[in-house]
Amino acid sequence: MTQIPLVVVAAALVDAQARIFVQQRPADKNMGGLWEFPGGKVEQDETPENALIRELQEELGIATETACLAPATFSTGDIDGRPLLLLLYVCRKWSGTVRPTEAADSRWLRSHELFALDMPPADEPLVAMLDALL
Ligand SMILES: Nc1nc2c([nH]c(=O)n2[C@@H]2O[C@H](COP(=O)(O)OP(=O)(O)OP(=O)(O)O)[C@@H](O)[C@H]2O)c(=O)[nH]1
């Protein structure tokens, strides 16, 4: 049976030094310990951009808006047997200070440094594309 993909949105926050924010998933979560871009699942009746704005507020305490979210690339994969569609946006403008609320750890890294991180399989093509883009 064909399943509707789970849509997950994520942001590459890029600072003035061209560093990208990544955070480590808590050990007790699905894919715990892996590094990822902030974001999460798009809920019913949410646009992808509104979902990402909400997740950035919840996870990092920052505010941004749709006009500051540039669609960058996407990848596909699966989560527990369900197809995954992972949408990555680049965001260079937000208000507030990035303060992770849920992450086990976090870092600001140059794009080439992301290759050394242990990330979910669906993030690998995103990292390669980001490195080419930035
Ligand atoms: N945020 C985020 N999730 C990712 C990335 N790559 C990737 O495979 N995922 C997967 O996409 C799913 C996102 O779910 P989540 O648990 O972070 O989302 P959420 O905040 O809505 O979760 P909740 O159900 O705990 O409220 C996870 O299974 C996660 O492992 C990524 O770069 N960022």
Automatic annotation (TrEMBL):
PANTHER family: 8-OXO-DGTP DIPHOSPHATASE, NUDIX HYDROLASE FAMILY PROTEIN. InterPro entries: MutT-like, Nudix_hydrolase, NUDIX_hydrolase-like_dom_sf, NUDIX_hydrolase_CS, NUDIX_hydrolase_dom. The keyword RNA-binding does not apply. CDD domains: NUDIX_MutT_NudA_like. Keywords: DNA damage, DNA repair, DNA replication, Hydrolase, Magnesium, Metal-binding, Mutator protein. Gene3D superfamilies: Nucleoside Triphosphate Pyrophosphohydrolase (3.90.79.10). Its cofactor is Mg(2+). Residues 5-134 form the Nudix hydrolase domain. This is 8-oxo-dGTP diphosphatase. Pfam families: NUDIX (PF00293). It catalyses: 8-oxo-dGTP + H2O = 8-oxo-dGMP + diphosphate + H(+); 8-oxo-GTP + H2O = 8-oxo-GMP + diphosphate + H(+). GO terms for molecular function: 8-oxo-7,8-dihydrodeoxyguanosine triphosphate pyrophosphatase activity; 8-oxo-7,8-dihydroguanosine triphosphate pyrophosphatase activity; 8-oxo-dGDP phosphatase activity; 8-oxo-GDP phosphatase activity; metal ion binding. Its EC number is 3.6.1.55. It comes from Sphingobium nicotianae. Belongs to the Nudix hydrolase family. One of its GO terms (biological process) is DNA repair.
